[in-house]
Predict the structure of Aromatic amino acid permease.
Amino acid sequence: MKTQPSLFGGAMIIAGTAVGAGMLANPTSTAGVWFFGSLIVLLYTWFCMTTSGLMILEANLHYPSGASFDTVVKDLLGRGWNLVNGLSVAFVLYILTYAYITSGGGITEGILNQLMSSDGNEVQIGRTAGSLIFCIVLATFVWFSTKAVDRFTTVLIAGMVVAFFLSTGGLIGSVKGEVLLNSIAPGEQRYLPYALAALPVCLVSFGFHGNVPSLVKYYQRDARRVVQSILLGSLIALLIYILWQLAVQGNLPRSEFAPVIAKDGDISALLQALGKYIQTGYIGEVLRFFAYMAIASSFLGVTLGLFDYIADMLNFDDSRTGRTKAALITFLPPLLLSLKFPFGFLIAIGYAGLAATLWAAIVPALLVRASRRKFKDSPYQVFGGNFMIFFIILFGLLNILAQLGMQFDLLPKFTG
Ligand SMILES: N[C@@H](Cc1ccccc1)C(=O)O
């Protein structure tokens, strides 16, 4: 008898994918609604994104293992939706892979330069080498197997958790009530107008949905296991985001976010601004390490989803040749793009949000509606009936509204 992979492994794949670049931008994008508002936005987004992940599972279970979006959407919603969905999935996964290679490549370059340089002998390997090394090393795990990704992601997340608690532990110790409550702050006193604008970045930070079909295969269609790992994985992400909000928004006053916002939420700008309020010498180093682990584990999760998606769509088998072909189509385009345009991280995350709303919120709800009509019996059904379908579509529409509102400057913009 084959033994089941552990629950922990699946939860790690989910949490590893979710916790990533989106999270690093959360405190800045929620500066307008500030701490309590951000808790509400985070909880709402967590609930909706977890539920939509479960909806993908429900629809997926009507199809053979390994069937991913392409198969399921085409059958349930038709060719038109499948085209829209396929384009938005590919767009999000590819552009995130690109974003991870640019930022992960930059950090790799920095670390290797530091390691190989000695007094009087400065080594500069360059951004291209950094990106190539980062991408090739991680891509090898994906090419090898899902199990290898699971193992390595677990190691990365362990490192990430340690770095996270070391850095935010220091920050949480110095949280000040008046900063957190913004009670003696000068400047802008309104919060509510900025609630909508906080949604899309939070949506990106709870994105893991490309991995649901992979998990169905991984747990050999054991629905209970997949549900548990989606719940556990997304709860871990939620917990980490709340602590992160507390660490940042409890130290850096709301009125001081201006320079960070001016730099599009750049993480080093954030650390610099924080530096005026606490001692960030070692915290800065550990936070950089944390960001690196977060980016690497998201890279693994996202490209695993993309890899399975491509293999399913182009009918590549699980042989060495099949996997090599899928790997080339997965990694080569974003790698080449990142070598040509090495600095496009934040712009990429922005576009990812809009496209992700479509396939990670709206399409899952439509899939469940269609599959409940088509199949009378389901091995698994998401709670909440038709109301939940409506609730998730509303969430998606609010996000699209927020994105468009920001694009066309129709929403009030918090500038610190
Ligand atoms: N949650 C990931 C991004 C992501 C979005 C959608 C699907 C998969 C991953 C991050 O914050 O980095």
